[in-house]
Design the sequence.
């Protein structure tokens, strides 16, 4: 239903005097002559007849007819004189509603200050303004402030949703009791230009205002009173009296204002507004009010609860009207979004850093391996070179942590029994705890299988056990428990994994008897670079890496830490269901031992944009008897392949390179190369580009950082195949 513009009939305009009550009574009578009023008349007639019968003992027909005539006469009287229609209100103010709204192309409506819509134009109806009142609900606060500004200053603005779209509404005062509301797309009316019906003088010139309102435009401020709307509003409203906002004293307020400020009503009355706001908020609010805006402004109240509050400030006679809004939920959503974007950005940066660092580590490893071959065990330089190799191994672990956090680590998943996995990891974990820490495990025999990377899961349990050990150091030791069990979907949901799969979950629980983790720290525990350990004892990547590994495996991890009862990390992994295809796949034959002789013969094209990696790798392969041609990018590699007519025995290529990447280069070179085997090397995970090679055959992958032994072994395997 849409509100219809209220206009006068043409004949009424021509022949009606200043008080054309006879003609006006007809539409008024139509307004009251409905089912409800007729029902009320019937009830009155029946009650009157019963009363006469009880008093007189009889009910003459003439009396009944008289009662009916009197009742209908009362209805006619009310319709003619007692009710005022929307048109009456407009005519009383001297307006022609249809002339006002039809003169505007944007959505427009004429309304009263209480929000009742009197007339609209078709554009307003098309925009979704079919209600008899201005937009309400969550958009009422801003529109309420705009109406107050229009009453005080002639014009108010508010961003309001109408029919599913946001509009910037300009509210212009028309006379004493009416306003003109215009809606435009956000920003269209916010360019500082004043349209002619925003200007009260222009409105006068166009005969929009009645004659008695033309001599001057009201510039006085509204009276300092709390109206019924503010009293019952779902937001805080208050009236403070004084020349300065922060020294003004609270005169009147609603219950929501008292609840937000956490003040007893008797104490709140007469308090200075400055006593309700923190010192920092005062300075910030004074600066913002100096811009001429009324809000919304973020402020901090002197209350115990951590609540985000915004305020609107409006001038009234002798003081200010204040409107407080609790925006805590909105702020939480904003923080969640910002945190999510920050984590995503950090993950991308970490992945890029790990890729570049892998290239440097490859160069270090190649050089160090070559020096170790020239300085074997017994050589005075062997110990130093071996120390460098250990440092490189620690750097590799750090890179793996970064890649696991960024979820870009190359994963080699296998099917493992949860009990066997915990049992095998127990041997390693006992070496990590000190004598004052006791490690206990509990797992049954009939535990399910999971599909995970074994090395990553060992890293997860090792990280959690080391954290538990360090947490109990201050209290002189304690106990670490590792428990594993199988759970159905319902049990996993009840235990802490709402998205548990239908096949159930395997639980690995690592708990300790330490001091526990406070809630504020537990909320940040999985954030990267967050650590409570002293400087130099932790990188802050441990738990974020654990979180990344578990999520990458399709699982879930949570922290449970009751006060004073230690901390428990619950790891949920989906149960792996063996498919018929896997059952039909024969078990792999044991790999043949790799020959100790890593030399060979063959023609290799090595494509790598990092000169350190390309130069050293090509040099070491040449030392082992291979003929190696080098290319620094995909374009140069294509030119070499065309020039050599594809006469290569093996293509080794990086994946990500400036310009043309490795997979794109291979698609163009494959018609020339034929069925030549291709080995891709990369610091990124294989899954990052595997979809680009779905149609390719005879492809293998070798993750960075490389060492010469592994590279030589893989090259010889590829050429032998």
Sequence:
């Amino acid at each position: 239903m849409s509100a219809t513009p209220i206009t006068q009939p043409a004949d009424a305009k021509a022949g009606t005097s200043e008080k054309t009550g006879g003609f006006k009574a007809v539409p008024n009578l139509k307004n009251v002559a409905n089912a409800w009023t007729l029902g009320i008349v019937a009830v009155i007639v029946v009650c009157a007849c019963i009363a006469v019968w009880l008093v007189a003992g009889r009910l003459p027909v003439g009396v009944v007819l008289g009662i009916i005539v009197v009742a209908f006469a009362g209805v006619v009287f009310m319709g003619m004189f007692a009710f005022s229609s929307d048109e009456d209100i407009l005519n009383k103010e001297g307006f022609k509603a249809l002339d006002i709204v039809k003169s505007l192309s944007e959505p427009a409506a004429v309304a009263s200050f209480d929000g009742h819509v009197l007339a609209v134009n078709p554009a307003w109806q098309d925009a979704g303004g079919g209600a008899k009142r201005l937009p309400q609900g969550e958009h009422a606060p801003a529109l309420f402030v705009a109406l107050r500004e229009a009453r005080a200053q002639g014009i108010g603005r508010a961003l309001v949703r109408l029919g599913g779209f946001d509009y910037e509404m300009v509210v212009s005062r028309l006379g004493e009791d009416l306003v003109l509301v215009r809606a435009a797309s956000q920003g269209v009316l916010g360019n500082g230009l004043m349209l002619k019906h925003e200007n009260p003088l222009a409105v006068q010139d166009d005969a929009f205002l009645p004659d008695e309102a033309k001599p001057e435009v009201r510039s006085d401020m509204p009276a300092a009173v709390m109206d019924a709307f503010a009293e019952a509003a779902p937001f805080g409203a208050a009236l403070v009296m004084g020349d300065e906002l922060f020294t003004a004293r609270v005169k009147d307020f609603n219950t929501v204002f008292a609840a937000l400020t956490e003040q007893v009503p008797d104490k709140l009355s007469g308090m200075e507004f400055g006593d309700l706001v923190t010192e920092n908020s005062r300075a910030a609010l004074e600066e913002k009010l100096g811009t001429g805006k009324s809000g919304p402004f973020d402020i901090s109240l002197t209350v115990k609860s951590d609540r985000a509050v915004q305020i609107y400030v409006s001038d009234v006679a002798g003081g200010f009207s204040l409107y407080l809004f609790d925006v805590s939920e909105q702020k939480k959503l904003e923080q969640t979004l910002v945190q999510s974007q920050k984590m995503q950005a950090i993950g991308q940066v970490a992945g890029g850093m790990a890729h570049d660092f892998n290239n440097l580590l490859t160069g270090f490893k190649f050089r160090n391996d070559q020096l170790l071959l020239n300085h074997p065990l017994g050589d005075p330089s062997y110990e130093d070179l071996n120390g460098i190799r250990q440092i490189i191994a620690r750097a590799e672990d750090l890179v793996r942590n970064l890649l696991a956090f960024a979820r870009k680590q190359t994963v080699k998943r296998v099917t493992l029994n949860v009990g066997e996995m915990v049992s095998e990891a127990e041997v390693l974990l006992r070496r990590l705890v000190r004598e004052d820490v006791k490690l206990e495990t509990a797992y049954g025999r009939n535990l399910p299988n999971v599909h995970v990377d074994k090395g990553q899961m060992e890293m997860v349990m090792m990280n959690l056990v080391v954290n538990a050990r360090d947490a109990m150091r201050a209290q002189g030791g304690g106990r670490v428990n590792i428990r594993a069990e199988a759970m159905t979907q319902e049990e996993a949901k009840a235990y802490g994994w709402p998205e548990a799969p239908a096949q159930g979950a395997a639980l690995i629980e690592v708990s300790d008897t330490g001091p526990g983790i406070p809630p504020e720290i537990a909320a940040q525990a999985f954030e990267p670079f967050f650590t409570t350990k002293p400087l130099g004892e932790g990188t802050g990547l441990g738990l974020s890496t654990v979180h990344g590994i578990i999520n990458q495996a399709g699982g879930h991890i949570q922290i449970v830490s009751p006060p004073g009862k230690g901390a428990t990390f619950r790891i949920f992994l989906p149960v792996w269901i063996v498919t018929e295809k896997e059952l039909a796949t024969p078990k792999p034959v044991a790999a043949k031992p790799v020959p100790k002789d890593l030399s060979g013969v063959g023609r290799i094209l090595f494509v790598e944009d990092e000169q350190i990696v390309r130069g050293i790798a090509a040099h070491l392969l040449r030392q082992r008897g291979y003929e190696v041609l080098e290319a620094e990018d995909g374009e140069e590699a294509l030119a070499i392949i065309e020039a050599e007519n594809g006469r290569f025995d093996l293509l080794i290529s990086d994946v990500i390179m400036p310009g043309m990447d490795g997979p794109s280069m291979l698609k163009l070179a494959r018609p020339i190369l034929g069925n030549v085997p291709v080995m891709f090397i990369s610091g990124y995970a294989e899954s990052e580009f595997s979809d680009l090679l779905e149609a390719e055959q005879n492809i293998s992958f070798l993750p960075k950082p490389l060492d010469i032994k592994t590279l030589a072994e893989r090259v010889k395997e590829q050429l032998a195949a």
Remarks:
- Confidence is low (pLDDT under 50) at residues 1-28, 81-86, 186-219, 588-595.
